[in-house]
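INTERNAL AUDIT FORM
Audit reference: QA-55
Scope: verify that the stored structure record matches its stored sequence.
Auditor: D.O.
Record contents follow.
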Amino acid sequence: MKRIIRFQYLAIPILAVLFTSCASFTGNMVGNAFLEPPKQSIPKTPEDYGIAYNDVEFPARDGITLSGWLLNEDAGKIIIMTHFGYRANRYGYQPKEQPRLSRPYKKEIEFVKVAQRLVDDGYGVLMYDMRNHGISGKSESGCGTGGIDESDDVLGAVEFIASHPSTKGKSIGLLSYCMGANATFFAQAKDSDLFTRSNVKALVAMQPLTNGDFACAYGYERDGKVYQTANAKFKEATGYDLDAPVVEQLSSVVTPTLLCQGKNDPWTDLDFIDEVYETLPVAKEMYWMEEPTHRFDGYNWFYDHPEKMLEWFNKYVN
């Protein structure tokens, strides 16, 4: 009996250690998921879709070289597309190139198909790889930051279009997905004057999301061991928390904004979306996509349903 009693007393701290170790291991895995996104190839170019384009390179605001495509550059107005990062690049998203145990979506996302809708409506389009994605250059840390450092990519893209011989002086619109939307908000907070003087007329912001909300969608509470471990690992590598302060940037936004969100998206906090919308100080509209039940369906949405996107850009980008 004594041995059993002693084991019972010993079992409590043993189980606690095992639980803590498991939580720490899981937290490090979650942190790594943000710090080490899978590298995605670029299997197609706009030529495969019958679209004329040129390969381009330009510097981000902080000097990192970004690689992209400039489609239909002779058009009278230009849309800058900023992809959603982490699991994507300018081409889109490929399930076969995701880690075997982490494939959140089974369908291919091809952003050129969305660009095709814009080209057909008379727009030129700049598509580019954010830092640490595709074949663009790497940051010093090599990590995504939820849109904070990537804001320099957006600034560089605007500066490139505003100064390029074939696009200089043309009206510009922004189509920004998820982390790309965050980056666009941060960019306007850094240098809102650039957007005004560069003739940037409108923004379509698709499903902004913080890394913190994404982690919470998997069931990791912010005050729990897994989340805290992941946040500490992320902060050690990047200097930032998983919850990028997106809402704090919004008072500097100067572009009329169409905010888009899948109403049934289980991976986001819809209260956050409401707060983003209410805080935006510009002409704005909230577009709830009623049908998608998977977050990534929203990234494909404007290929099959381009009407709202085109309506917004046609209203402001002229």
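Auditor finding: record pair retrieved intact. Strands lie at 53-59, 65-71, 77-82, 92-93, 109-110, 124-128, 171-177, 200-206, 257-262, 284-289.
Action required: none
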